[in-house]
Amino acid sequence: MIKNKNYLIVITIFILAFLAGNFVFPQFLNIPHFPNIPFRLGLDLQGGAHLVYQADLAQIDSADRVKVMEGLRDVIERRIDIFGVAEPRVEVKDQRLVIELAGVLDINEAIRIIGETPFLQFKEERTEEEREEILNKQEEIKRVIGKEFEAITPEDFQKIQIIENWQLAFENPFFKATLLTGKYLERSEVGFGHPVPEPIISLQFNEEGARIFEEITSRNIEKPIAIYIDREMVSAPVVQEKITGGRAQISGDFTIEEARELSRNLNAGALPVPITLISQQTVGPVLGRISLEQSLLAGFFGFLAIIIFIIIFYRLPGLLAVLALGIYILLLLALFKIVGVTLTLAGIAGVIFSIGIAVDANILVFSRMKEELKIGKSIKTSIEEGFVRAWPSIRDGNLTTLIVAFILFAFGTSFIKGFALTLSLGILISMFSAIVITKNFLIFCEKTKLERIRWLWK
Predict the structure, then answer these.
(1) In the β-sheet with 89-93, what is the strand arrangement from edge to edge?
(2) Residue 187: what pLDDT?
């Protein structure tokens, strides 16, 4: 009965290995209707674009900056997803966004993808005193540098910094920023104005945005409210009455296609703050392919060294462990495809490390088995005792490594998270490999001709 159960488990393991192998390498047998899902490769293996943006948080309270940056990251991720970029990585580092787009080799296209997300802002008219103060400050700077204010060069900044409140000159003299920006936008739609049927864009703000919009319109009746897209004014309608409900319109000299494109971009996510590209880098596919080939070569030689070591020292159990490790690798790679793990160099390092951990579990079992065989116990008893006595060490060793991996995943950066994820999955599959696959292979060889060849077991 036990032997029949063992046969069934071994057959199931080989069927599972066959399915996993075809799922990982479908090109070998080319089974019809079998899913062909490619591996997801990271920027360092596939090549792609690396962009760094600086966020302008000058108008944001320090207490709200973390929340705004998180919202900015979510908007950029949503925008990139719409354009079909697989597995984008967007990280917040202080006031900067680090964006990695694997597979996007045209960096101008990458910049276009990010840059097309508009920054929507509503501004109210300044008082006459504020306007005069700014214009007077600009005139003062013109006298100091001896040229028009618009022609200021970087060298001129050293001269103007002696002027009190010189930063004021760089403010818009006619409109000032309000709290209402694209982060409060709920949706936008294209419509047509009345009585002139020109394209307009209707905006609907969320509950907080509606409250802010109501406050702005209530204090600016019969005054213009300027609507800015990417720091350019597109419309400045005059408020006739207080507007409730959070609805607004953007009108201008739009074509239907321009209005649709702007509405689509706004729905994709208007940026809560403006961003400026400060660094760009392209990782070529050739460099990525070389890194991938070198990583696979290192993994192959490492696995080969493990095979030689474990067969020489443990003979038949070592050979069965190698077979189990081969199945372990197929199952692990299949899991990577199913889960959608993005493989990077660090992730591959985690895989190679987990192979060593899987071997370690087998070695603990085999060493215990040898001890039992040396005192004259049978093969069957030695197998059972070997797994029972080795299990606490295997459990504790893998558990502590998993804890470290979870900590790395929770608090690490992108590449560290990749390493931690592949290591964690590898450890979980390795425990299944050692406790289930290797054990059943050993039981399968019990009470066969191989059992009588004692040197194969010692």
Answers:
(1) 89-93, 96-102, 48-55, 275-283
(2) 80
Q: Per-residue pLDDT averaged across 144-150, rounded?
A: 70
Q: Which of 290, 275, 286, 340 is nearest to 48 (CA)?
A: 286
Higher pLDDT, 82 or 360: 360
Q: Kindly state whether residues 348 and 417 are assigned to the same domain.
A: yes
Residues contacting residue 34 through CB under 8 Å, at least 6 positions apart: 22, 23, 26
Residue listed under structure tokens 């005059």: 238
What is the structure's pLDDT at 265? Answer: 63
Residues 62-72 have a mean pLDDT of: 77
Mean pLDDT of the 147-176 span? 75
414-432 helix and 345-374 helix, angle to the nearest 10 degrees? 30
Six-digit token pair at 9? 């488990």
Tens digits of per-residue pLDDT, 209-225?
899 989 998 998 888 88
Q: Describe the strand order of the beta sheet including 199-205 as a list of residue ranges.
A: 185-192, 199-205, 247-251
Task: Quote the domain boundaries for residue 101.
Answer: 43-117
Say how many CA atoms lie within 13 Å of 458 toward its Cβ.
11
Does one domain contain both 126 and 110? no
Residues 374 and 233 in one domain: no
